[in-house]
Amino acid sequence: MQSTQSELVSEVLQTEAFQELSPQIKVAIFLGGLAFLSSALVTMTAFTRIVIVLSFVRRALSTQEIPPTQVIIGLSLFLTLFVMAPTFQAIEQQAIMPYLHEEISSSEAIQNGSQVLKSFMITQTRKQDIQLLLDLAELDSIPTPESISMHILVPAFVISELKTSFIMGFCIYLPFVLIDLVISVILMALGMMMMPPVVISTPCKLLLFILVDGWSLIIRALSLSFG
């Protein structure tokens, strides 16, 4: 898929209209495209839910910056590619390859690809979030999911992903809060009120997380949550 995408980009860059542009405008278009790609990665894929849940795990373990932020983002990125692989393959089969073989026009390729992406986003978006954006835009109910505009679907999808990730984060946070509570009660019962509970609770959290193979459970739960 990466090769076909690179071929599509190179074909666009070799068009006569693009070649006639000044170097400054070419650089501006290139940088704008990169900014759009990063925004699309965050707002139109599984990245948001994954990175927030993994951040909740790190905060619940009270390990400060361990794992480092670069590790969290890197794992979130590749797990996003894993989760989105069926969607990307469908976009390649229905939009990219037919366009490269000159079977469909560029507008049809964009429409086919957006419909595949819409299907993924709609399955992960709550109906009340879509209805909220429709009410704010003063629009009537959409008769079919395929007719939902991207300017309605994208913010609804992001809101739904934020809610889902916070629910998962709460479920992850709760057992670690109980460990903190138990350690605090034990220290108070022993008269060790001056000792910070986090000094004792952090090793206990890490031991529990290791014993239950926490990372595998988190990755499995995240992957299955998109099913």
Automatic annotation (TrEMBL):
Record-level GO cellular component terms: bacterial-type flagellum basal body; plasma membrane
Pfam families in UniProt: FliP
Principal location: membrane
Keyword Lipid biosynthesis: no
Membrane topology: Multi-pass membrane protein
InterPro entries in UniProt: FliP, T3SS_IM_P
GO biological process: bacterial-type flagellum organization; protein secretion
UniProt keyword annotation of Ligase present: no
Compartment(s) where it occurs, according to its Swiss-Prot or TrEMBL record: Cell membrane; Bacterial flagellum basal body
Domain of life: Bacteria
Keyword annotations of the record: Bacterial flagellum, Bacterial flagellum biogenesis, Bacterial flagellum protein export, Cell membrane, Cell projection, Cilium, Flagellum, Membrane, Protein transport, Transmembrane, Transmembrane helix, Transport
Residue ranges of the TM segments: 27-57, 69-91, 166-194, 206-226
Function: Plays a role in the flagellum-specific transport system.
PANTHER family cross-referenced by the UniProt entry: FLAGELLAR BIOSYNTHETIC PROTEIN FLIP
Family in the record: Belongs to the FliP/MopC/SpaP family.
Protein name as catalogued: Flagellar biosynthetic protein FliP
